[in-house]
Amino acid sequence: MKRTFVDAGVLIAAARGQGSLAERALAILEDSGREFAASGFVRLEVLPKAIYHGNQKEAKFYREFFTTIVDHWAHDVDGLLRDAYIIAGEVGLAAMDALHVAAAAALNCDELITTEKPGRPIYRNRSVRVVFLGR
Fold first, then answer.
1. Rounded Cα distance, 32 and 48, in Å
2. Domains and CATH numbers, the chain
């Protein structure tokens, strides 16, 4: 079983369901050969905005992902912040990307799937393999 961490871009693509990017995102989320890991940081990125804008279908999608699909949660916020700070300084990551990498690494994920294009700083991290959703 492949342990997978998806970032907010992947969830947004799947929830909004348009085009080939959405199809790839949904295929990953529906892959029975995967178990999913997440952190409260990903939830914070996607769910409050959907709720605020009244996107009930999108909010429901996120809630279902976080309550029924995610098997592993990163709970050690202090540890994640410490690790993210180190990772960000090593490879020049933005704060949220560093938190995602730290969470994926802490949960022993095989991969972190992102909509960030190759060549971005997230791909320079040495803690977890990063896979581009696109193409």
1. 28
2. 2-132 (3.40.50.1010)
